[in-house]
Sequence to fold (226 residues):
Amino acid sequence: DQQVKQNSPSLSVQEGRISILNCDYTNSMFDYFLWYKKYPAEGPTFLISISSIKDKNEDGRFTVFLNKSAKHLSLHIVPSQPGDSAVYFCAASAIYSGYALNFGKGTSLLVTP
Amino acid sequence: NAGVMQNPRHLVRRRGQEARLRCSPMKGHSHVYWYRQLPEEGLKFMVYLQKENIIDESGMPKERFSAEFPKEGPSILRIQQVVRGDSAAYFCASSPRRGEKLFFGSGTQLSVL
Fold:
């Protein structure tokens, strides 16, 4: 059963515009959420995280928003750059699982010049 | 300051053979996680180990798969009598403490002929 869902397999955005990647989860025990970025033939690299006690976390061009009542989080990238083109994975974890991450299937972002 | 090191990068095995995948965590990290990524899928948690102990193996198939993280040396994911369905990218990740973000290796691509 997929506890973390990324319903958009792909997204195309023009350079300079905002990219919004969405993620939904079903397990209310999740208390820590992360976004990872992955290039082909490489491992995922950590991008940004948020704990369940917050509703927003910002790091440079990247902002993650968490809506616990809707069990939804989103990643905003602004302004988008061609180098941001990659697959983005949403992940969630809970203390009871030792913080093993549950990943979504990923959204492939293409930023065009 | 090397990151998480996985070897080999590519491993080809015939059906029925054994596959051994190695992972050296980042220096100072004692928590190791193994994930598997099938084509068009997200990363699926397999097992979480902390030096010499298996903490959570809920994602590991019950048969043919085993993992260890000895006091000295790398973590090993072992797949006995491989089948074609085992073909996937296997990623190892490490963290310094439970509940902190994971750092991933570049993965081992296993191909079963």
About this structure: Residues 85 and 110 of chain A are 5 Å apart (CA to CA). The radius of gyration of chain A is 13 Å. Chain A is about 0% helix and 55% strand.
